[in-house]
Amino acid sequence: MSKRYTITAALPYTNGPIHIGHLAGVYVPADIYARFKRLTGNDVAFICGSDEHGVPITIKAKKEGVSPQDIVDKYHVNIKKSFEEFGISFDNYSRTSAKIHHDTASEFFTTLYNKNEFVEETTAQLYDADANQFLADRFVTGTCPKCGNEEAYGDQCESCGTSLNATDLINPKSAITGNVPSLKETKHWFLPLNKHEAFLKEWIIEGHKKDWKPNVYGQVKSWIDDGLRPRAVTRDLDWGIPVPLKGAEGKVLYVWFDAPIGYISATKEWAERVGKDWTPYWKDENTKLVHFIGKDNIVFHCIIFPAMLKAEGSYILPDNVPANEFLNLEGKKLSTSKNWAVWLPEYLKDFPNKQDVLRYALTANAPETKDNDFTWKDFQARNNNELVAIFGNFINRVVVLTNKYYDGIIPAPNDFTTIDEETLAAIKAYPSVISSSIERYRFREASQELMNLARLGNKYLADEEPWKLIKTEEERVKTIMFVALQIASALATLSEPFLPFTSTKLKTILNIGSSDSVINNSWDDISVKNDLIAAGHHIGKAELLFSKVEDSEIEVQLEKLEASKRANKAANKVIEPQKETASFDDFTKLDLRVGTIVEAKKMPKAKKLLVLKVDTGIDIRTIVSGIAESFKPEEIIGKQVTVLVNLEPRALRGVNSEGMILMTETAEGKLVFVNPDDAKATNGLQIS
Fold this sequence. Notes:
Number of helices: 21
Strand content: 15-25%
Subunit structure: Homodimer.
Radius of gyration: 32 Å
EC number: 6.1.1.10
Number of strands: 26
Binding site for Zn(2+): 144, 147, 157, 160
InterPro entries: aa-tRNA-synth_I_CS (IPR001412), Anticodon_Met (IPR041872), Met-tRNA-synth_bsu_C (IPR004495), Met-tRNA_ligase_1 (IPR023458), Met-tRNA_synth (IPR014758), Methionyl/Leucyl_tRNA_Synth (IPR015413), MetRS_core (IPR033911), MetRS_Zn (IPR029038)
Keywords: Aminoacyl-tRNA synthetase, ATP-binding, Cytoplasm, Ligase, Metal-binding, Nucleotide-binding, Protein biosynthesis, RNA-binding, tRNA-binding, Zinc
């Protein structure tokens, strides 16, 4: 039976592009769910939009010397285009700077204000006198009172996840000037969450104990157990939605208050565009509301927004909030400020027509209940060993053999053997199996069940060997190919939520699923129809669904990350302090000479060492130097260098080293020679 679904995906901040952490945490699972619900005949509104009023946007604008509007206009276009190219099937992607959102958020605030749902208070807030402004959200950093993280923000500690007020921070400092802020009184309006504590306990702690994810339920329970406190809904800022009250000049709606209302305004915008009534999607008890978010947004979507909706009185509450944990990258936490990320626009450029590869890799390794790690090697393995070798290989064999034996016309089967009947029965079971995983928000599990269907196809062909039987049992081969084509047809439909581009391509190859095709299977058809693709139907020629990802392509991506690592190291390079004072007599003991490397070779079984012959002007001597990871032997022959010639000899791996080559390291970590630049400096000249 069909049902109405309002599916929301967290509004991304428009202060930078989308990266794989956003995709794995929110947008890929949300898209899988929305596509699945449409395929199973439901009425779906899949809603998202740009969150354009956050403090990170004003910080970005200050850094770039432009207006916040310039920043949001730039990144709204960037993000929207990336989502479209990646195949995220939003019914509407809006923005919170739109008039319809300003009107909706203002109206929502006014309704709560008129119902006396706010508490008006004058409180002391952190103020930066030099910047002449109050420090909201991320304009202030300090030590988290919960875990001791010294880089916590004024709204949240990203280390322990605790939601904070700026005044909670220990040793706060302004993110604008670096100054220690003072306290200054200002008037604001607060949502008294403590007033809604009993409702939230009943609704979540008792009502959703069994059907919400443990990581979500646990965080919410911890918050409620700790006791809820009033939360400000306004801020002293000049960027945002003005507070719609007299005497509130210079104040805007706090971003956490206006952003979730963006789901409502985006639904209104969509409904107006397509000629629908928006209200059932938010106010009909038969509608199922599902929020897809990352774990850093759990409190806002499971406590604060529901309290707002409950206080307003006419809205439904979320049926589920299947938040994911965080995705790490190559063993390290994703960091946009340090460029330790895989950016979606760059991926789409570097891997054209491979949207589904990233979708699959992120889904198969999704951080559903704990933080997970994305590595480029795993990405390559998922593509080459699963998409190419299992899914793609099966489809290619089926299509090639059908064209080879029957000119692309599906043969009529003869009597089915036990293995044929078992295989056909197994196909019919897969929609239910995959549905069960998706309904429980286990998308990783669901993606592997899809791959198991492709494995079934490969095993069936490998066991039945039609390429051998074609010479002796032509009639049997017709049945084998008919059964194999049923698997291929099922894959074309069931892969759509996970691999939408592949699904479209496969349907084109099989000549099914289009508006003018006689074959157009729904999700439920896979379970009940005996002939998903009928005898006599003509399919197209074989095309490769997936291509291998080569080592060279992975090396390019790893080198990008290494470049980020070097840049971060350079940015954070600390100049070593001066060592203890040395006397002039101490210095004169050092005998530094100009020398030339005349021979260089690697030390056997030593990764870092080169064995050098150096003409010091006094003699030609052996020096062992730990520079093999930075220089090839042939690169440095003939190189003039500075040599400490009177260093006490030392045996290294059985080779007597008689001196030291002077080196230094750049901010990027690169070794360079400390050498004389004057071409007239001859070997043996002393350096003083």
